[in-house]
Amino acid sequence: MLFIEHSGDLFVDCPKHFPLAHCVSLDMKMTRGIAVSFKRTFQNVQFLKSQVNQVGQCATLNFYGRHVFYLVTKRRFFHKPSYYSLTQALQALRSHMEDLGLSDLGIPGKMSCGLDNLNWERVKEIIVGIFANSNITIHVFHI
Predict the structure, then answer these.
(1) Total domains, the chain
(2) What is the CATH number of the domain that holds 100?
(3) Which of the residues 29, 99, 116, 124 is marked catalytic?
(4) Whole-model pTM?
(5) Which domain holds residue 136?
(6) Which of 49, 74, 80, 124 is catalytic?
(7) At residue 129, what are phi and psi to the nearest 5 degrees?
(8) SS3 for 77?
């Protein structure tokens, strides 16, 4: 497992063949922050909603050959996630990625820390812990 932090925009600077992941609410509103860009770019909200029925799951979308993962970390868009719900969703993500044979992942810098108010150092520790002993490289893009 590698954890690499880059300076750049996830949508511009991340290689187009890398899968992407970000955090969402179970209601899939995606009305603020980077979620707006995911919703606008990849759409398919009803399809994503049909895949998940509880917090801690991970919906997946194959968008013209690029996998996009939606980590459900809270029930409603105005709620805040917990470290536990983030951990569950990241475990589901790792499982999906291993099932699909994926080895790279692009995520936004300070995922779950902006509007969701989690602590980046703790989130980073959780990510590193979950993906330890895997062949997956996490690429974090900080604007």
Answers:
(1) 1
(2) 3.40.220.10
(3) 116
(4) 0.96
(5) 2-142
(6) 74
(7) -65, -40
(8) coil
